[in-house]
Specification:
The protein has 22 helices and 15 strands. It is of the alpha/beta class. The longest helix is centred in the C-terminal third of the chain and has 18 residues. Helix 8 crosses helix 11, helix 9 runs antiparallel to helix 10 and helix 13 runs parallel beside helix 14. The strands form five sheets. Strands 2-1-3-4-5 form a five-stranded parallel sheet, sandwiched between helices. It has a three-stranded parallel sheet with strand order 6-9-12, covered by helices on one side. Strands 13-14-15 form a three-stranded parallel sheet, with helices on one face. Among the domains are: 128 residues, 3-Layer(aba) Sandwich (Rossmann fold); 71 residues; 73 residues, no CATH class. 43% of the residues lie in helices and 12% in strands.
Length: 533
């Protein structure tokens, strides 16, 4: 069969594991598989199967656009299968918008779900890493799960619908060994479990990770770009731009360090032919082995540290002396802990102090906001981290995550205690640091306020004043705004949020107070407009 795998062109941090496992299944049947990301033109039509992955529900419009585009490449409408998070949460809506009949809900744990009779648990197969070429921006890592599901059933979380049962699903050392055999070693280990600490097999899981080579020692040697290309050669149509640059850099490095004129002349001649060739694949196929033999005598090998990342976050209620002792035996970077509610303050502080006790100095946490919390709750959790950084001398990076109901196809939801202006103010700060709150005390104080009163004032501040704080401070405009803001009543501040909460300022009402009319022009100021002031 001729198979097409499609991932919509959303900004994904990790590769499409579902498609990678479907690829492994079909290649095991002897089928031909092609993977594409986003809208691709000039593809052949008549694929006997088209599989399209989905991610978050707020990416609904992009996902629908992608599905509609690829309908033309399938032999029949029944040849298209759509699965993943969005497909599981909004199957009927997806079918209604696209006309697709085969929407897979939940895990692909039986090949009967896609019309085959061999009853293979596709979800348990080793992912096919070969569909990701060297130009991919995904981390150099194994992407694995030990258990599935989570028993907590938190009201804000979609996991109970995605993975309703908690169960152990793999022996990590065996999976890593199989990936090594088929696709070569990866540097790091990213575990995608939703609540790994709940597993009764946690000691065995930790031991399995250690046995796979993840210890607190430098023991990983990165493969050369030529070695990587030669391993992937059967699955690579042509060298990517990134691969060409890496190989050229590698050969130039060799020319600089070789000590014999014979080897230097050979590499120089090879580099010239490689750089000028429009189809350099054959050059590397024929010469790659000799290049590696030459450079192995000159280029020093520097083992590096490997890291383990429990990426979905660890359950703070289950972090105790024993679990932290077990975790500390692994090279964890960072230790991710969920701090979703201010109610978890005591247990969160205890967990971070335990981490520091066991020499884990890189900590990250997820901060849910815009749910049942108040804006002040988010500041208090950030302030908890600020104080722990000072007390323990460790790094704590926070990732505020805006809540949006799982059945929404956009991100416009506003929580009970929030408003659009406050949400935009938080986003303005996060945009400065790619969505995270940095560990440095000075940044936290500057952008979230030294006190709760300063924080509240920042929430009301004009968007560009937040993003370009130093610029507007220097020109005295921030001080002018603050002076007027301090005169506003509680009712006027609420009215101000209503007027400036959207992307475009609402025309001020005729009966707005004089103070409101005086402060509104500051919300229309833009960074570029004020450069000459």
């Amino acid at each position: 069969m001729n198979i097409l795998l499609v991932e919509p062109d959303y900004n994904a941090k990790f590769p499409p594991l579902g498609l990678m496992k479907i690829s492994a299944y079909h290649k095991g049947r002897g089928d031909k598989v092609r993977f594409v990301k986003g809208i691709r033109e000039h593809l052949d039509t008549g694929y006997e199967r088209v599989y399209i992955s989905t991610l978050f529900t707020y990416q609904f419009d992009l996902t629908v656009k992608t599905i509609r585009y690829y309908k033309r490449f399938a032999e029949k409408i029944y040849s298209i299968f759509v699965g993943g998070i969005l497909a599981t949460l909004l199957p009927e809506k997806l079918q209604e918008e696209t006309g697709i009949k085969n929407v897979i809900i939940g895990l692909l744990d039986n090949s009967k779900k896609i019309g085959f009779r061999d009853k293979i648990n596709i979800d348990s197969l080793t992912p096919d890493y070969s569909i990701l070429d060297s130009s991919s921006s995904y981390p150099d890592a194994y992407f694995l799960r030990a258990p599935r599901g989570c028993p907590n059933s938190c009201s804000f979380c979609a996991v109970p619908r995605l993975e309703p049962k908690f169960y152990e699903c793999s022996i990590l050392a065996n999976e890593i060994e199989e990936i090594d055999r088929q696709f070569g070693k990866k540097r790091n280990l990213i575990l995608m479990d939703n609540n790994i600490l709940y597993s009764k097999n946690l000691p065995e899981i930790i031991k399995s990770i250690q046995d796979a080579g993840f210890t607190n020692t430098r023991n990983y040697i990165s493969p050369s770009p030529i070695e990587t290309f030669l391993r992937e050669i059967d699955n690579t149509e042509d060298l990517s731009v990134k691969q060409r640059r890496e190989i050229e850099k590698y050969i130039r490095r060799g020319i600089e360090v070789v000590t014999t004129s014979k080897d230097r002349d050979y590499l120089s001649s090879l580099l010239s032919r490689f750089s000028e060739s429009s189809s350099p694949n054959n050059i590397i196929k024929q010469s790659g082995g000799r290049i590696e033999r030459i450079l192995s005598n000159y280029v020093p090998v520097h083992p590096v540290q490997r890291y383990v990342d429990f990426n979905q976050g660890l359950d703070v209620a289950l972090l105790n002396e024993e679990t932290m002792r077990l975790l500390s035996s692994l090279p964890i970077r960072p230790l991710r802990i969920a701090f979703d509610s201010i109610k978890d303050k005591k247990s969160y502080i205890e967990a971070v102090r335990l981490a520091a006790k066991y020499k884990i100095t890189k900590v990250s946490n997820y901060l849910l906001y815009n749910y049942l919390d108040k804006p002040e709750d988010l500041w208090e959790r950030i302030d908890v981290n600020r104080k722990l950084i000072e007390e323990l001398g460790i790094h704590i990076y926070s990732f505020p995550m805006k809540y949006s109901p799982a059945d929404r196809t956009d991100r416009t939801y506003i929580g009970k205690h929030w408003n659009r202006k406050f949400l935009r103010a938080i986003q303005a700060n996060l945009n400065l640091f790619s969505g995270l709150v940095p560990s440095e005390y000075g940044f936290i104080r500057k952008f979230f306020g030294e006190t709760i009163e300063e924080y509240r004032k920042i929430l009301y501040m004009p968007f560009d004043f937040i993003v370009y704080r130093a610029h507007f401070e220097k020109r005295g405009l921030l001080a002018e705004w603050e002076k007027i803001f301090e005169t506003l009543s509680t009712e006027e501040k609420a009215e101000l949020c209503r007027i400036v909460g959207g992307r475009h300022i609402i025309e001020k009402d005729a009966d707005s107070s004089k103070r409101l009319k005086k402060i509104l022009p500051y919300y229309q100021m833009k960074y570029d407009d004020s450069k000459g002031i």
